[in-house]
Every structure is written in C-alpha cells, then in structure tokens.
Amino acid sequence: MPPSDAPHLQGLDALQVYEADVTREDIIREYGVQADDIVKLSSNENPLGCSPHVTLAVALQLGALSRYPDGAGVTLRQYLGDFHGVSADCVTLANGGQDLLALLAAATLSTADGKNQNARMVYAQYALSDYQLASLNITQQAVCVPAQQYGHDLAAMAEVINATPECRLVLLANPNNPTGTLLTAEAIAKFVARVPSSVLVVIDEAYIEFTPKQTSVRLTQTFDNVVILRTFSKAYGLAGLKIGYAISSPVLAELLKLSRQAMGANVLALAAAQAALADQTFLTDYLAFNAEQRQALYKGLDSLGIEFVPSVANFVMVNVGDGQTVYQALLEQGIVVRVLSGYGLDAWIRVSVGLPEENNRFLDTLAQVLA
C-alpha cells in the first residue's frame, strides 16, 4: 500500500501491470530446467528471427545512437504509403500497435476535462483480455458482444452499436488473437457501412500478413472514421524493437499526430522497419514455413485427440481442459505457452507456431502432461 500522503494519480487506480512471460532465468532458477531445454511458444514471435537485411540496417545505425530519430518518420511513412498505395499523410508511426489503440481509446472515450463516463466502446468476446481492458482504462465503458464460433459476430455488433447512442469506438481484430479466426474484407466493408460516421472503427491487423488479401486498408480511403492498426512485431520478426503504425484518412492521421509522442519510433526501429518491408522474400518464405508447421501442429493435436480452433495466423488455441494447470505443468518442463483465463477461456491455452523441434517438444510434453 502507498503511504497515506502519497499523491493520488486519478485514473490510474484501475490499471493493471502487464503480466509478462516468465524469463529464462526464472525457469532455470525455479524448475532447474537447462537453458537449452527452454522452449518459448507464448508470444507469437517469428521463430526464424528477422530478415538479414534488417540486421545490416540496424548495424549501420549503431553510430547514430547519440542522435534523436526523425520524429516525423518521413522516410518510413513514405515507404509505407507507397507499399499500401496511400499517401504518406495517411500513415502515423508509434511505439507498437498497443500505443495507438490506447491513444485512440483515450481520444474517443474522454473529454477535454477528463474521462467521459457515458461514452462506450464495443468489442467482440475473446478480442480483448481483462488486462487489455484495464490497461486502456475502459473496463467500465466497454460493451462486449458474444462471439460466434470464437470469432466476431458482425451482425450482432452492428445492432449493439446502432442501439447504443453513446458508442464512440468499435474494435475489430482481424485476424483475431487468441482465437485465430478471420473476417473477410467484404464482410468488414459491409459492417463499416452500417456503422454511424460518428463512431470510430479501429481494425487491428497485427496478424494480417498471414492472410494479406483480407486487409481493409482500402476502407480508409472511403470512410473517414476507419483506422487500421499494423505492427512489425509478428510476421516481420521485430518484436524487440516495438514499432507499429496506423493507416487512416489524412484528417484522422493529422489528429493522431497531435496526440502521439513526438518521437514515437527510435532510430533502430525506423531503419529496421524499412529494411523488413523491403525484403518481401523473407516474409514469403516465413509465411510458407509457418503454414507448414501450423499444419504439423494440427496433425499432432489430432493424433492426441485434442480439440483446437483452426487458425490463419502463427498460433493455435488448444482446449486442454484446465488451462492454468496444464500451463504450469508445461512450464515446469521448460515449455512456455499462454494461458487464456483473462479472456474467459479457462480450459484453453494458446501456443505459438515454432520451429519443428519446438513444436514436437510441445506435443510430446503435452501428451505426457495430459496422460
């Protein structure tokens, strides 16, 4: 407990500390697992690393670490604009997609003099965890719409939005984490057309590289109330540099720039993101690898008679009966997965698609744990 005379930071009381993965050191110390025997399949990272062009680009920037980055990220924004077929004025850079979501939530659900308790955000069941709701400080303002086969029920969401005059923000995650389900671009376009123009539609496409034809970027050129969130952390393998961006109308982008951090991306991240985007061969090879290894995971789970939700991304949601107990048992053997109780999915875990030997180790250990 803080001392009674500590300053009261209004609005922070309901926040939660992010529960990060256990570290390798934690596992070695607590369970006596050898470092080489630890398999981390919890954060949907790229097990192949990043493009060698990224490594070179980062190395070339090491001499510039004493200098501030280009706060506007002009070069990378132009590169991203060309890549997506939009103006650079439509692109906003940030320190990861979660920063952008927090900024958008604060902007739409608050007033100039503080939090607007009447404003509402609509989202789909299994699209945000308890932690994420708390970290955005919107737990009491969020309206959850029940999922349909572990995915978004767009028809039900549209009905809720139109029946909620106080709705200011709606979030779609496509593909969705942790369920791995997908909405088609056509279905999203029809949904957006049903949403009042006063409601901001945020589409989180953190995993869209795994199914690029279903991106909704084109909607930002037609609807001023649509924002697309993207990240380099997943398919591109830059999780350690935390760089993401938003695509929107130029008007929305200008508003975002007024409220974002002045230097939302560091020198290394700017260089790495541009190099990663330029090496589409690396991305193509990784996507093929991921699809192959994801199928191998399916086959292994089927052989064990274990239920799972087919995924379009680089992770699979698996029904193990008691997620927390199985998570702990796997952890004691050096296998780190994600427990999903924060989503109300107590029976499930999420496992990232790893290297062949990592996937096999997970399947073998899971079989032993469940036996």
From TrEMBL:
GO terms for biological process: L-histidine biosynthetic process. It catalyses: L-histidinol phosphate + 2-oxoglutarate = 3-(imidazol-4-yl)-2-oxopropyl phosphate + L-glutamate. Its cofactor is pyridoxal 5'-phosphate. Pfam families: Aminotran_1_2. GO terms for molecular function: histidinol-phosphate transaminase activity; pyridoxal phosphate binding. The keyword Amino-acid biosynthesis applies. It comes from the Bacteria. InterPro entries: Aminotrans_II_pyridoxalP_BS (IPR001917), Aminotransferase_I/II_large (IPR004839), HisP_aminotrans (IPR005861), HistidinolP_aminotransfase (IPR050106), PyrdxlP-dep_Trfase (IPR015424), PyrdxlP-dep_Trfase_major (IPR015421), PyrdxlP-dep_Trfase_small (IPR015422). The modification N6-(pyridoxal phosphate)lysine is found at residue 234. Keywords: Amino-acid biosynthesis, Aminotransferase, Histidine biosynthesis, Pyridoxal phosphate, Transferase. Its EC number is 2.6.1.9. Residues 37-361 form the Aminotransferase class I/classII large domain. Belongs to the class-II pyridoxal-phosphate-dependent aminotransferase family. Histidinol-phosphate aminotransferase subfamily. This is Histidinol-phosphate aminotransferase. It comes from Faucicola atlantae. The gene is hisC.
